[in-house]
Amino acid sequence: MPSEPLNENAKQKLALVTGASKGVGRGIAIGLAAAGWNIIINYNRDETGAAETATAVRALQRECWTMQADIGDGAEVQAMFAKISETIGRIELLVNNAGVQTWASLVELSEQDWDRTIRTNLKGCFLCTQQAARLMIADGEGGSIINIGSGANKTPFPNLVDYSASKGGIDALTKVAAVELGPHRIRVNCVAPGAIEIERTKQEAPDYAKTWIPLTPLRQIGEVSHVADAVVFLASPAASHISAQTLYVDGGLWSQGPWPY
User: Fold this and answer.
1) What is this structure's pTM?
2) How far apart are the C-alpha atoms of 212 and 221, rounded to whole Å?
3) 261 is a catalytic site residue
4) What does the pLDDT look like over 139-171, one tens digit per residue?
5) What are the strands of the beta sheet with 64-68, ordered from one edge?
6) Catalytic residue among 43, 163, 208, 248, which?
7) Which of 121, 127, 245, 253 is surrounded by the most beta carbons within 10 Å?
8) Is the pLDDT of residue 120 over 60?
9) Where are the domains of the chain?
């Protein structure tokens, strides 16, 4: 990993994407790279996946680094941001993407699984937002923070109680952070995907696309590129007056209610 700071032009296009070793996080990192951003890929355990994402980013002629850190651990998050600031450069964009979930009913969900999901999804989002905001406030240049939510932000999902609680919390955190950080020219928004076909969802349901396409008004399955495009837009000058918003990238899926379980 290069240790020298970026040049001045590159510093203005540096993004950190958490949980970018695979899935939606990888798609976001690649989408941002295609839009001209240099990328820091955060991962926890999947070093091989992070390296694969880095290869894809560098193929787009962008600079890229990988950073291992458990985002649910405050000391590790603080150390990661300190290292980035000291050895790479100024972060203009943070994308809080890392997340986990547990398939279990409310009465069967273990306390351990609840804690793991809240720790990663909600606490991790808080810790990274706090560190990024402190650096952005200190340098006085503003910035953008984009949280990755879900249809679970507003729609109850049976057997995903821990995940739904964490994503609902992220939605509220987005709004509070946007209000507090706005005077420092830091925008905070949320992108909430609908049914997105990735390796994990295809493993969970082999007929994932076949199941969700008829339920989606646009009659198409979501792809990681759709989420990446929304993130690129919210991070761009075109969204310079947009903050405290949740953008649903769902083909109209979550506009329907009550939800047919």
Assistant:
1) 0.92
2) 7
3) no
4) 999 999 999 999 888 888 889 999 999 999 999
5) 64-68, 38-43, 14-17, 93-96, 143-148, 186-193, 246-249
6) 163
7) 121
8) yes
9) 10-248
